[in-house]
Amino acid sequence: MKDDRRDGRRTGRKEVRTLQRFSLLKAACTGV
Asked: Which domain of life is it from (predicted)?
């Protein structure tokens, strides 16, 4: 269970990083 919780936290951080990357890519494509 502890491992699952750690995996969840790591996945959450990865998701946040992916969202930030998507935002940057969208901004670059939009030219904003």
From this structure: Eukaryota
